[in-house]
Amino acid sequence: MNAAESSFADRLLGRVRLSGLLSLAAPLLAIVFAGVVTSIVLLISGDPPLETLGIMAEYGAQPRSIVLTLNYATTYYLAAIAVAIGFRMNLFNIGVDGQYRLAALVAAAVGGAVALPGPLHIAMIIVVAMLVGAGWASIAALLKVKRGVSEVISTIMLNAIATSLGAWLLNKERLAVEVAGSNNIGTKPIAESGQVPGMAIIPGTEAKVFGLIILAIVVGVIYHVLLNRTRFGFDLRATGRSETAAVASGVNVKRMIIVAMLLSGAAAGLIGMPQLLGSSYSYSLDFPTGLGFTGIAIALLGRNHPVGIAFGALLWAFLDTSSSILQLHEISPEIVLIMQGTIVLSVVIAYELVHRYQITAEQRRVSKELAGGASPRPEGASA
Amino acid sequence: MEEAVISTSTPAVELAGITKRFPGVVANRDISLSVRQGHVHAIVGENGAGKSTLMKILYGMQRPDEGEIRVNGSAVTFRSPSDAIAAGIGMVHQHFMLADNLTVLENVVLGSEPRKGGIALDFGTARRKIKQISDTYGLGIDPDAMVEDLGVGARQRVEILKVLYRGARILILDEPTAVLVPQEVDELFGNLRELVREGLTIIFISHKLDEVLSVADAITVIRRGTTVASVDPKGVTARQLAELMVGSELPSPETRESTVTDVVALSVRKVSVHSPDERCIVDGVSFDIRKGEVLGIAGVEGNGQAELVEAIMGMRPADGQIVLGEQDISAWSTLRRREAGIGYIPEDRHRHGLLLEAPLWENRILGHQTRKPNVKGPWIDRGGARADTRRIVEEYDVRTPGIDVDAAALSGGNQQKLIVGREMSGDPVFLIASHPTRGVDVGAQAAIWDHLRAARAAGLAVLLISADLDELIGLSDTLKVILRGRIVADVDPQNVTPEQLGSAMTGAGEAA
């Protein structure tokens, strides 16, 4: 494999741009393909495909479901951004899950223990969450920089440690109290000054959209600006595209690894905030796990692009929401899992195909426009 | 008598009119070559001359645009290396492709495992076959040894055995001595003679002339993508070969006035670089480059030039002192050195010079991401960077439909012109030009030379590393020869002959 060509991983992680309509063709192709595969599965299991999709779409379009979808998507979006920050520079932060859970737990405990005036209280909880997420991620970053430990391995292990550490902390002798009216335990509820009220913006339902959906949007904008408009972002993307070229251009790669990992961890710390500050007000045993992995799938789906990730998160959330109706129609809700898996897989394949088409097309176009008589052959391993 | 029989038989491999083009570059042009059965046939040429492309074609990794390949007299078309293997051609790569944690036996059968009863592996047969091959050709390989316990020479013999096991009668060895110490080289040559005695044919790629002369039965020289000569090693000296390799038509020494000043721009003092295993790669190199001076460093690839450059750029830890102008920059980061006015045209533009999948204007920023017109404070100045990219495209004649195409879409020559333009921007005081015209077409080459000359006239100090003697002699004010990490000779480019330079470079004779 020639170092000159983009590797499969580069394309997988969206470090290779697709331009114009082609960038839309790939995901559309993938979703259509996933639809076909799901239909086949439904046919095999004896359910009518079109009808099933119709049921899901109908249920998903109800006002209450839309609120639910938006709320899921808010969380998923933050998770995917946390993953994408690492992806953009070749860091696989598999530990988003552990970073998020630990951050949510500590932030909830701190938030429940103090009382501050409104905005300050909220800000403090969010900052604590970001610090804890970044702190947990920094372990993997330091191990990589100082000892060359692959961040994939260390973050996976840190996930396991975070689970145990969380269980140890979430104990009545330490951070937990009994949740009133159940045998569940959780952190002390956050006082009203630290709660973010929901927004009833969807007509036709009482259900409220997380107030922190705005946080997700802001994070998306910051992600975009930071990566595309700043020197830091340029260095980060350059390192992801070619570490050797980045080194030669004067980028301190070790420092970039640490900073990118800290940012990824800080973003991971935010994942639990919409739910914590918007509905549960306390971290308890039933806080969702696995969000970090959902984030990986959505970051792949959205090609690490802030808008692409938004669509990916909404699609994912829609599928999650509408799966709950399937059981009423005696269709296994696991069909949605198959669908989600197929979408990710076909997105990867579709991008690969479109990319190959595009690179030859561009080379052909350049040679044609230059009319230098150069052959349109792709420049493979050059002489 | 047997010799006579072999030499009258059909050639083992014949290449006729092989041409291979990449966009903007012709890697191979009308290559013709005839390899006799039972010969060690050496193919020599500088790096970038087109040897590897030719071998990739012969091994089925790339298909020629024109021309014919004949193996044992019959024309063949290879779609993949497996076609080549089926035709009895095997390749031993420069970098070993062995799994350390497997035995020799397991490595050899990997990919063509002998089956027993459809499922089980038949290691017994394989072991016998390996032993037999090893004994026949005197390779001395124990099939049950772990590869990780073997030395470099033995690993290479395993690679050879692997190819023989698959039934190859024609072996391509790509720079086989690059990784060996002298004793191992002698051993390898002994093995090769054994192999040809048994009737095998060996194609031996190298640029080490003394080795080629000692082992080859026939030599073909490739230069700038085409075969320039086929010679008999008995009737040729290393000097003559060197001359053929780099081309004897040297540019007539231009009557140009010297622009060298007395002001030292860069001073390198006793710089040494060690590899991770403590081997000395660059050994106490010292030189001064003055403003308006081009200092050329001649040397065969792999004698420490690349490491020296990386040490000056701060990409590799080094001992010694590097002084830029008045300042000791030895402890500075790469970024700070660049900011202080060091421009860098890297040897491998794909690895170190470009972001291939990024548009040209982003590539303009690379290496200059702290300087105007690319940034305003912490922000990327898109407008400034794009405007300046247009200027470079214009001034340096980068043939491109626009500045939004990816760097990968440009030909090598145009990529290089973009890099040259970029590195000349921002008023550098010192420029490292490492193989600045490697793999670029003739037009771009002339343009790049002109730019370097103009910059020199404007007072730039240039360190020129090259394996192309034309380029070195034509551009340099001062020439030094590097061999095994040491500066071994100072040469006056006005008076040097290519023979003298070639000899010094390859260590084949006395220095000039």
Automatic annotation (TrEMBL), chain A:
Its signal peptide is none
Note one Pfam family from the annotation. Answer: BPD_transp_2
Annotated GO molecular function terms are: transmembrane transporter activity
Location comes to:
Cell membrane
Keywords attached to this Swiss-Prot or TrEMBL record, sorted alphabetically, are: Cell membrane, Membrane, Transmembrane, Transmembrane helix
Q: Which residues cross the membrane?
A: 21-45, 65-87, 99-116, 122-143, 152-170, 209-227, 257-277, 283-302, 309-329, 335-354
The main location is membrane
Q: Supply the CDD domains for this chain.
A: TM_PBP1_transp_TpRbsC_like (cd06580)
Q: What is the official name of this protein in its record?
A: ABC transporter permease
